Every structure is written in C-alpha cells, then in structure tokens.
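Work Package 4 report. The design task specified in the project plan requires that, given a folded chain encoded as structure tokens, an amino acid be chosen for each position. We show below one input record used in the internal validation round.
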C-alpha cells in the first residue's frame, strides 16, 4: 500500500497549525449548524444520513441539499465544516463508507473525521486533497498510536478519548506534531470510545458499525403500575417515578439492582463534562480545539452551549492569567447538562 510516509508530511493539506484555540460544535441538522455558526463556533461537524456516522438517528443529519446549504452558510461566514465518517465499515458494505469519503470531498468540506485505517488509506489514495482528522472512535490514547496514523496517513488532527487526565493529554501533545482536539462539554462515555460492546450485547448492533448506542427500533417505553419503564430490546434499563425526567435509554446509564444495592447507576451516572474552569490549563498545554458533544441535541442546546463557550474561550485567550469561569456560565450550561449536573471527568485525577 502506498502511504503518506513515502512522501513529506507537509504534502498533506492543513498540517501546519493555526494560532488560537478553535471551538468545534455539533450540527445534527441545518438549523443546528446555523445556531452554532451564529453563536460563535469556529467549526461545525456533521454527518450523512446513513451508518457512516456515529449519530445515525432518524430525522438527524444531512442530505445533499442540506449539506450544500450548510457548507455555503458556514464558509460565507469564515467558518469550517467537518464531516464525521466515524464508524467502522462492515465487510459487505464497505462501498457505503468509500462513497461517503468521495461525497465529502466533492462537497468541499474542510476535513473528514475518520476512525478506520482502511478508510484513511482510501482517502489518501482517492482524495489526497482531503484533510484527515482521527476520530475519538479511533481510540488513540497515546502518542505512539497517533504517530502510526501520522506516519501512514498524514492525519492533521486527532480527537482524544474522554478517559485521559490533564497530565496524560499534556504528555501526548508534547510528543506529537498532530493537532489535538479534546471534548470540552457534553455527555461522557464510560468506555474508551470505539471499544464499546454494551449495545451489541442487548441489541446485536454495535454503535461502532451502526451509528447509535441504542437503535430506536429497539427502544420501548411502557407504562406500568410501578412507573414508566424504558427497555432496550426487552432489557429493562430504568424505571421512572411520576414526574421524574426520563433519559434516552442506554445500558451504561441505566439504573440496576446489583447485590444488596438497589436501583442505582451501577455503570455511569448521567452527568455532563464541563471544562470551563480548565480552559487556561488546556490552552497552556497546547490543545488546538475544544469540542462540544451533542449532534443528537436540539438547535437551542447548540446555541446555548456555543454562546457560553465562545465567551469563555475569548475571555481566556484575552487574559489567561486572570481568567475565571463565571457563575452564570455554569448555570447556563447546567440547564442543558445531563442530569442538570457537571463534572471534570477524567481530566481531574490528582493521582496522575
């Protein structure tokens, strides 16, 4: 196989980093894309309406007309558009993913976000002008992994999984020429992304190939004398009391009976990552971009989160030594956070 390593890395487009920290926001729909751009996103990321992206929900994502309109809207305002092709091709359907790479290239996007090495090889060979980003689904948690993708495919950026401490992120940045993007707000994942098999246990479909943690066709809501129940392919995920907010059922965020402990979040508690207080540290260690999770969320969510993070990043870049996250910023983000609460996640691990 011919690889980028056979020629200078500078031949890959966009390899040289630009100044400042970018804000990368989700666009599950055209209204969400416009909300992100209008409220200060530097970049938006979106997906096609098929299994090539990890948010393959009915009613979300972009057809040909929408992506053309969205790219024009963003580019006219000086913003970038990334296409997430971040699931793994299935043996019998590899052409779907290859066509998606070609579609992205022909539409004029600024980068594609890929997880599968085979798709990177296809992109390098058939669409060499495309800037390549390594998806969080690629599960690269160390600089040796990033070096592999850089040497073979010339990736310009990598999105790190949400399991690394601040010290570990800094160590990765110190040893790689690849731009590093980290999640700054949104739902957490208990697994290293790209390695989860919980959904396939219950439904026979994995998010890494089908694009959703809980396929809508497997989700059922049932009213019972004990309360409203959510089930995934018949597996009881949670039971809610009258008036209690009910989240979309995923195995990792269900409540279960384990031993003597009854009805508690045995795997992961619903909460959102919020890095407002860590922005100076992330900026200092050289993080290139802050990413917001939530392509499945509403345009109102996108607008609110983008607006707050835009203000916070601008404030931090203007005066990092005296930056302080404002109380009203936290209040606004907690309104749209899972469980209306936030955490620093793995970033804050003092023993590391």
């Amino acid at each position: 196989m011919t690889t980028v390593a056979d020629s200078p890395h500078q031949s890959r487009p966009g390899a040289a980093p630009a100044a400042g920290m970018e804000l990368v926001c989700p666009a599950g729909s055209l209204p969400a894309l416009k909300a992100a751009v209008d409220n200060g996103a530097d970049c938006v990321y979106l997906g096609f309406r098929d299994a090539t992206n990890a948010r393959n929900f009915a009613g979300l994502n972009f057809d040909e007309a929408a992506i053309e309109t969205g790219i024009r809207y963003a580019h006219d305002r000086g913003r970038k558009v990334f296409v997430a092709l971040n699931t793994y091709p299935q043996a019998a359907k590899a052409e779907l993913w290859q066509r998606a790479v070609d579609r992205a290239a022909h539409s004029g996007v600024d980068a594609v976000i890929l997880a599968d090495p085979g798709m990177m090889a296809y992109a390098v060979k058939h669409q060499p002008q495309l800037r390549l980003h390594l998806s969080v689904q690629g599960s690269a948690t160390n600089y040796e992994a990033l070096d592999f993708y850089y040497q073979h495919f010339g990736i310009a950026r990598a999105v790190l999984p949400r399991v690394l401490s601040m010290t570990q992120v800094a160590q990765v940045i110190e040893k790689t020429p690849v731009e590093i993007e980290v999640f700054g707000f949104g739902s957490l994942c208990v697994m290293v992304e790209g390695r989860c098999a919980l959904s396939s246990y219950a439904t026979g479909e994995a998010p890494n190939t089908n694009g959703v943690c809980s396929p809508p066709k497997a989700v059922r809501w049932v009213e019972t004398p004990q309360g409203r129940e959510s089930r995934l392919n018949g597996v009881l995920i949670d039971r809610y009391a009258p008036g209690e907010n009910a989240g979309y059922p995923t195995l990792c965020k269900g409540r279960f009976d384990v031993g003597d402990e009854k009805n508690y979040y045995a795997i992961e508690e619903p909460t959102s990552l919020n890095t407002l207080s860590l922005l100076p540290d992330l900026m200092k260690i050289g993080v290139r971009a802050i990413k917001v999770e939530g392509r499945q969320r509403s345009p109102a969510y996108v607008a609110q989160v983008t607006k707050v993070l835009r203000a916070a990043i601008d404030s931090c870049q203007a005066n990092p030594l005296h930056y302080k996250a404002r109380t009203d910023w936290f209040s606004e983000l907690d309104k749209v956070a899972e469980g209306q609460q936030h955490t620093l996640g793995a970033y804050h691990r003092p023993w590391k």
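Residues 1-18 have pLDDT under 50 and may be disordered. Validation will be extended to a larger panel in the next phase.
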